[in-house]
């Protein structure tokens, strides 16, 4: 069954998780996603096993489960981006694509003549989405940005895990690469917004997604609770602030949840439904 993005083409110059996650969302919505992989080895995650997909005889293939989980519904091509011939192929693909996704280090594709301005000259309607750790400018633009590092920097670990006073307590990393997943989701949302704007203007645009900001904006929701709490910042942590995380002051009820959290949620007044009469 055709999806809402049927007829749109996405050129994915991305690898590992954040960019491919965005590409997979767009593929699920019906877009034709062409994934560019490194010649010889392909995407790094092809080797991130076990587990590996088994063929009909039961033998393991070279397709890791990790790779399959983030590249569903795509077509793939291998290209050497640092070679003139590979760059020519990418330009030809970009010239007839609606969207480009990339998550290389800042400046890498520009060095190959495949940056936003380069491809915009070939296709003014192109939406070019760049996913980086800390953005295109600023003092951290060239800094590494691993998932667990950003979890720590954004304070996400501070609201995850057992309270400090408990055995084994302290900040903990989320069990999944949540930074990359959230960044990919925000990238897909931003690309869809850019598509909507292009329908009005006919022009494409550069979309910049910072992985640091993608998580920071979610964790900082808790700052509002601190501002409203008379005890001041830090008074509510983890389960003591139900919508945020697990770490708290250790005040748990017999079901393992924070005292009062369920009561507060259940006591919230039901929203009046709009009348459909007349």
Relevant terms:
278 residues; alpha/beta; 6-stranded parallel β-sheet; 34% helix
**With helices defined by DSSP (H or I, 4 residues minimum), what is the helix count?**
10
Give the C-alpha Rg: 22 Å
Number of strands: 8
Strand order of the largest sheet: 5-2-1-6-7-8
Which descriptor suits the 3D outline? globular
Helix content range of the residues, please?
Answer: 25-40%
Any overview of this molecule?
It is a single chain. With 278 residues, the chain is α/β, with parallel strands linked by helices. Helix content is 34%, strand content 15%. It has ten helices and eight strands. It has helices at 18-28, 65-70, 84-95, 108-111, 116-122, 147-153, 178-201, 211-219, 221-228, 261-267, and strands at residues 9-13, 32-38, 52-54, 60-64, 74-79, 99-102, 127-132, 205-210. It has a six-stranded parallel beta sheet with strand order 5-2-1-6-7-8, with helices on both faces. It has a two-stranded antiparallel sheet with strand order 3-4. Strand 1, helix 1 and strand 2 (32-38) form a beta-alpha-beta unit. Helix 1 (18-28) packs across helix 7 (178-201) and helix 7 (178-201) crosses helix 8. The longest helix is centred in the C-terminal third of the chain and has 24 residues, at 178-201. It starts with 8 loop residues before the first strand and ends in an 11-residue tail after the last helix. The model is unreliable at 244-278 (pLDDT under 50).
